[in-house]
Amino acid sequence: MLVDQRGTGRSTPVSASTASGRPDVELAAYLGHFRADSIVADAEVVCRRLTRGRPWTILGQSYGGFVSLTYLSYAPDGLAGCLVTGGLPALTADAAEIYSRLYSRIAAKNSAYCRRYPEDVEGVRRMAEHLTAQDVRLPDEDRLTVARFRHPGKTLGTSGGFERVHWLLEDAWDGAELSASFRYPVMSATAAVGTQLRAAGVHLRSSRARASRIPTASWTATGGSSGAAAPRTSGVLPELMRPEGPLRPPSAPLGRGPLRR
Q: What beta strand segments (E) does the chain contain?
């Protein structure tokens, strides 16, 4: 059985209309109803209705892994088994350490990409200059900025991600302008609509409205506040945040070894 947990699917999804007009404090309180502990309480109600109190086995993937561990903490007697295929929180590392290690891996992936496709280094630099000088609009009329242009790079950590980024850049230009075959997939890959937000144990399908104002690091915290770990640790590798884009020639690789706070 697949469950549409709170904030997803048909279980009262959080949308633009949900957030519209709510003060920040009220919105934060409302989102508190979508935490993992509430999702576990819902699952226990479903379990009692379907199994008449017999424990059941759950499968957790990605954020579902975090919810599964919450289930083990809050209602272990309701489980006959717990299978986790992804989404295990750190036992001792805090959010800042996790992000620091992540930036190091991002840098290493960028260097590996440059070695595989050295011709793309100049292409990314040209793209960054164009996006800085021009008001480039995606098909939904959102502006494509250098910061947003970085987002498709998240696929560098996935199987076949290098090729997907390279093919995207191969078809980027139509003369002096960015092509439709580039702008449409970039819009799809970077739009907030329909993507998942995780905040303080909350897992939601987001709309564009105020998505950036919902903290997303706290779900990695271990027993305390994350202290805005993502922006706080982003300066450990300033090369990744340069205006001309993150790619560098392979003669100047980034990210050798783990980073320390």
A: 56-60, 79-84, 173-174, 177-178, 196-199, 202-205
